[in-house]
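User: I'll paste a sequence; please echo it back and then give the predicted structure.

Assistant: Echoing your sequence first, then the prediction.
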Amino acid sequence: MNRCRLLVLVLVFGANACKEQDAAPEAAAGGPVRVEVTAVHRGPIADVVEVPGETAASVSLRLTSPVAGRVTFLAALAGDRLAAGQVGARVLPLANEAALHGFALLEGGGESSAVAGLRDRLGRQDIALTTPFAAMVAARPRNQGEQVAPGDVLLELFDPTSLYVLGQVPLDASARVQPGMTVQVSGSGLTATGKILALVPALEPQALTVPVRVGFDAVPDRPLLHAPVRCAITVAQHPEALLVPRTALISPTEDDHGVVMVADQGRAERRAVRLGVVSRDTAEVLSGLTGDEQVLSAGQYGLPDGAAIEPVAAQE
């Protein structure tokens, strides 16, 4: 008899323990999940394509020696400015140089005043090379006193007011880029704004990019030639877009479709949205939200639709 009572008590205690164990996870599952929420708001957003580029000059010139001879004047250094019509270099032809050398050999025997005058004229018959436009010296590959051949470059010049940027747009983004779009240029000490002047109708074969020519709104303070820069091209700009944090998107976007979760009376409601411009931090919502909701911006991953939540305002 006692054994039967003992067995009954064991069974009762076991059943109560099982009920407590089942009730514990059920209570835990029913507790609200703490999440961060952000109010949907209106504001500006821009679709920006960032591409590499390099500065170039539409007006440039290589000042070359027209004859074989000796450089008698070459004062400008790289970085110097030359005015339009200013003499950049002088070259004494080789024939004149040979004649002067012959006169030097005859100095021991004395020379008449006529010979001295001829030698003076030959020495002053160097060829002056002038700059056809106001220019900056990009390079000076030769030095004064050197012997040069016809076509040797003495100075490399460019007009700093003719600077532009040649950007390289990836092929898949080139269809979105058009002349007239605003461009922010930065890098190599340059910070400037400009606009796309033209798309070059040729593909860079190795990089598979489409070159675009960007003109500056104003001459940069540092007119650097062949400087690597970054070009931020504003493809689209919406001043009054309906915006949510990009962290609110809980699934990879497919075309223009996405999913967010909205805080609705202590519950997380799954909402499909259609997206517009998506930037690094913000996403534009074209449909699916009215504008007075709060979306879950942190802690929403893995939550089922309708889950109980404890919303907390996200820190700015």
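The chain has three helices and 20 strands. The longest strand covers residues 228-245.
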